[in-house]
Amino acid sequence: MHRLKELIRFTTFAVAILLLLLSFFWLSITPWGWIGVVVFGIATLMGIWDLFQTQHAVLRNYPVLGRIRYFFEQIRPEIRQYLIEGDNEEEPFSREERSIVYQRAKNQVAARPFGTKQKVYDQGYQWLTHSVNPCHIDDPNIRVRIGGPKCQQPYDASLYNISAMSFGSLSANAISALNHGAKAGGFAHDTGEGGISRYHKKGGGDLIWEIGSGYFGCRHSDGSFNPEMFAENAALDQVKMIEIKLSQGAKPGHGGILPGSKVTEEIAEARGVKVGEDCISPAGHSAFSTPLELCHFIQQLRDLSGGKPVGFKLCVGHRREFMCLVKAMIETGIRPDFIVVDGKEGGTGAAPLEFCNHIGMPLTEGLTFVHNTLRGAGLRDEIRIGASGKLIHAFDIARAFALGADWANSARGFMFSIGCIQAQACNTNHCPVGVATQDPLRQRALVVSDKAKRVEMFHRNTMEALAEMSGAAGLSDPRKFLPHHFLQRDASGETVTGQQVFPYLPEGFLLRGEDCGKGYLERWNRADSASFAPQGAYV
Questions:
Q1: What confidence category does residue 36 fall into, taking pLDDT thresholds of 50, 70 and 90?
Q2: What does the pLDDT average to over 7-16?
Q3: Is residue 391 a contact partner of residue 409, using CB atoms and an 8 Å limit?
């Protein structure tokens, strides 16, 4: 029954074939049958072409019928806006953002006529200050070295990489396209917590192995951490960094389950579970429960991996808890090599509405807090910071650097580059373009060789745009952006600098007991390296 429902999307093509056959019969009765032969013959040929072409996933999954979408894309912009893309202010990504990704992924000129569409006089409007003496960056492929003093195998990462998306949530073809693109472009691909699949390995691209609370790929049968299995997978040459997932922006503090009915042989192989067995990701980790234990777990993973960079990812929640971690770093002398700050605006295939909308700190505030806390504790120079959460435009990436990031990650940007059209059917297994589905027939629409090139081009063109924007500001490196390079209009209509809104606080101010405002010192004094337990109501 399920397969029958799936085949309904080929109905239009099937009807065209049937009508063509009827037209031949009609032709034997009257010459007017040629009309049907020509019309339905063309439709049938179009359907055959759609099934075997490799450029458009929608057409491969919806032959003939999918052409209606592309018809509206060719007509007037205002018609396209309301008939195809809608005017829904609650869309997770704007039409402009998707358009720029598609253009860069297809290596098209991302230019527009008639100036900005931004409402430049509205509250909150932001802009970058430029220089009358711009410079040119010859090589936009700038790298950042990740690895502290105790790291034996530091990694020189691109400034822009693929954020965490698991195999199982994404299809085999999607993972393959992303990883082959990362290999060709020389940037990293975060595995997500679903483990290292055969499709990651086949692509050959650099991997950031994410270890979640389910310890997929490094677990015992009871779901606890398995050091021997971890060491075996961490030794893979493709694995360049290890990332402990404490929380993610789209659903922080929330676990998950992949029902056993969806656990195929390939998924079971990647996650280290049995076929047909439920994959449970608890809300919290079992390998540690205190800040000190987390620091020792970081060192354990560093030792087991042969000295590769180890860090963690989190969406900032209770700010005092992050300060507990920082105090534990100081007490133990164990520092993570990196911290990835995930904004609450980060996406996921499925999450409770309340978690999507109202739990977790947005990237701007979270990144600023982590950056300034590390500065205040005198650790900022030892720890790299990554940022993720709707970082798709060069402007967004540049602004993240100004707020303290050393590199940026993107999930949806790269998903768009392989054909995601935001159908928002990720949790139904009915993704129309083969990105977020395990249905072999649907994911056939995503042609790996074609989409891998788009992944590479999207990365390259975005890095070139970032280099051009940096040069326009008179900077020779995007990492030299600072808050004062950005201005914004506040609620009163006045112009304020980024340094006024998101200032860099003094190095070592927490260690010296200096009160720089914004509640940092109060939380620091409440933080306890031995426990995450609440210390009063001030979080």
A1: confident
A2: 76
A3: yes
pTM: 0.88
Nearest to 91 by CA among 380, 423, 474: 423
Q: 94-129 burial, b for 16+ CB within 10 Å, e for fewer? A: ebebbebbbbbbeeeebeeeeeeeeeeeeeeeeebe
DSSP code, position 9: G
Sheet architecture: strand order including 495-497:
126-128, 486-489, 495-497
For 143, phi and psi rounded to 5 degrees?
-115, 155
Residue among 342, 284, 428, 287 nearest 165 (CA): 342
Least confident of 165-174, 293-302, 468-477: 165-174
User: So what's the pLDDT on residue 80?
Assistant: 43
Residue 337 three-state SS: coil
Output the CA torsion 185→186→188→189 (10° steps).
40
pLDDT band at 226 (very low <50, low <70, confident <90, very high): very high
Q: If you count them, how many residues does the chain have? A: 539
CA distances from 68 to 6, 18, 62, 74, 77 (A): 19, 20, 10, 10, 16
User: How much is the CA Rg of the chain, to the nearest whole Å?
Assistant: 25
Average pLDDT over residues 344-359: 71
What is the rounded end-to-end Cα distance, in angstroms, of the chain? Answer: 52
Q: Which residues have a Cβ under 8 Å from the Cβ of 200 and sit 6 or more positions away? A: 167, 175, 179, 189, 191, 207, 238
Rounded-to-integer distance, Cα 217 and Cα 320, Å: 32
d(CA 208, CA 215): 15
> What digits encode the pLDDT tens for the residues 443-484?
888 999 999 999 999 999 999 999 999 999 999 999 999 999
Helices (H), 85-197: 95-105, 172-185
CA 522 to chain centre: 34
Pairing of strands 126-128, 486-489: antiparallel
* For helices 172-185 and 448-472, angle between their N-to-C axes, nearest 10 degrees: 50
